[in-house]
């Protein structure tokens, strides 16, 4: 049943991802055309392999991208691991309890590094992977604008401020999304992904 509803839930969400991808003028669909020409087929192949093993991972990648973008922009900050001197967003309660797919993104990034060392950002790998996950689950496709810079810091305090929690009622959710410029329809599209992933 969830798969039959997927395209209707994903279409509005995909439009939001396009919005997330065009918030900076320097982004371009051909950003890595010369510096890493095999980037897109490599990412797609690895996501396809993962979705073939576990179809829900496509929705999980989308969910991971949403949690990254909703806090401080699509900067890959959710991917940063904690260190002795740094506590990131990944282990914040709202992320630790609901976000997955980190290992797959790490694997894809490792493969991309072998192709094109120190060229492609983790933030772009996450954006491409999210799109490919949606497409492989029967959702729409779109061109991903690339050229994001990876964050070297995280805003853990903003996770609690911006990521909705299970205790949010409808009024809280509408207010939370509205504060970031999203409509109630956008809210339904974004939170509907929770049912699948």
UniProtKB/TrEMBL annotation:
Query: What residues does Ca(2+) bind to?
Result: 68, 71, 73, 75, 77, 89
Cofactor(s) needed, names only, are:
heme b; Ca(2+)
- Give the cofactor binding note: Binds 2 calcium ions per subunit.
Positions of disulphide bridges: 36-116, 69-74
Record InterPro entries: Haem_peroxidase, Haem_peroxidase_sf, Peroxidase_pln
GO BP terms in the entry? hydrogen peroxide catabolic process; response to oxidative stress
The UniProt record lists the Plant heme peroxidase family profile domain at 26-197
Query: Which residues participate in substrate binding?
Result: 164
Entry keyword set: Calcium, Disulfide bond, Glycoprotein, Heme, Hydrogen peroxide, Iron, Metal-binding, Oxidoreductase, Peroxidase, Signal
Name the SUPFAM superfamilies on file.
Answer: Heme-dependent peroxidases (SSF48113)
Q: Signal peptide location in the record?
A: 1-25
**Reactions mediated catalytically:** 2 a phenolic donor + H2O2 = 2 a phenolic radical donor + 2 H2O
Can the keyword Nucleus be found in this entry's annotation? no
Q: Name one GO molecular function term.
A: metal ion binding
Q: Which residues form the active site?
A: 67 (proton acceptor)
Q: Would you identify the family this protein belongs to, as annotated? A: Belongs to the peroxidase family.
List the PANTHER family hit by this protein, alphabetically. PEROXIDASE 52, PEROXIDASE 72-RELATED
| Official protein name in the record | Peroxidase
Recall the taxonomic lineage recorded for the source organism: Eukaryota, Viridiplantae, Streptophyta, Embryophyta, Tracheophyta
